[in-house]
Amino acid sequence: MASIQRPVGLKCNGIGNDSNDVFVIQILLNKFLLLGCLGPIIPLVVDGQCGNKTCEALYAFQRGIMGWKKSDMRVDPGGATLARLHGPLKWVNKIPGDPVVIDDWKPKAQDDDYELTGVGYKFDTSRGIDIGGSYGVSAGTLDLTDMENLKSYKLNYAAVGAGLGTPITFDFSTYDMTSVGLVYPIDRTHDELTLNDITGWCLIYQVQGGSMFGGYVTLMLLSVGAGLVGGMLASLTGVGTLLAPAIVLKSCRAVVALAGWNATIPSAGVSGAIGYLGFGDVKGKLAEFQ
Fold it and tell me: Which of 18, 22, 150, 269 is the most exposed place for a label (fewest CB within 10 A)?
């Protein structure tokens, strides 16, 4: 049985949330998340940082698996939550294959002293490729730096979507082409981000144009949730995708805004796409909805 030395979870800064302990809890939670035991919650990036998604997973686990009426989003060494995390799998309010319903599963921002910790990320550079028209695909890489540990991450994305403008578009950017950007937290409960706040399903909106040499402005709404993305995919009809940002902005974790130069065939247009941002090959994530 894996053990922890100090508490992990909400309000544990100063007395706990040691990265080695957080690693253990994230791995144990993923045992339930990977099989959908806690409903529509994306498995955690095991990064040793106790941020929003780790605490929300604890909330769903304590409410749905342990049956607590009030969750403290905390795991203590030798405590009941740690013991149950080592226990057998259980599906919340369902048998495997049935829909999952967790009433009021998300912790509220207005709870007293609801503060989560994380790290800030700085945009370094990006590269990407877009092939489109009325419908299109895009893929690329974002280079971000963890400002607390000064560690760099390469996060890959792939997306499918719809656009308006030139019938056929093709453009690409490389690391050698200038790009600037900003990573901004949207969650009202804290001002810093963890990798779990950044990775996951995202919506990507872009305006681009030029002839041989052009420019682009891109807005990425990060970690919007697989359930929301699935609903949007079901209603993809032309400009309908382009009208969604105002709705999605309320549920996403963070925004990346970037602009730069690219190489392009003569074209101009605006597009909206649904994608996945994560480590390694992310194209398989899109295949789940195709």
Answer: 150
Residue 103 lies in a domain: no
E strand or H helix at 29: helix 19-33
Range of the domain at 81: 8-85
Residue-by-residue DSSP string for 65-99:
IS--SS---EE-TT-HHHHHHTS----TTS-TTSP
Per-residue pLDDT for 116 more than 50? no
207 is a domain residue: yes
Neighbouring residues of 118: CB distance < 8 A, sequence distance ≥ 6: 49, 51, 52, 190, 192, 193, 194, 197
Residues listed for the chain = 290
Residue 67 CB neighbours (<10 A): 9
Contacts of 287 (CB under 8 A, 6+ apart): none
Per-residue pLDDT reduced to its tens digit, 29-63 = 999 988 888 877 888 988 888 888 898 899 889 98
Most confident by average pLDDT, 8-12, 81-85, 231-235: 81-85
Where a domain ends, among 27, 61, 85?
85
One domain for residues 141 and 275: yes
Strand-pairing partners, residue 221, are 203, 255
Pairing of strands 169-173, 74-75: unpaired
Q: Is 113 a domain residue?
A: no
- The answer for 15, left when phi > 0, alpha when psi is -120 to 50, beta otherwise, is alpha
Domain C-terminal end among 85, 103, 137: 85
d(CA 23, CA 36): 20
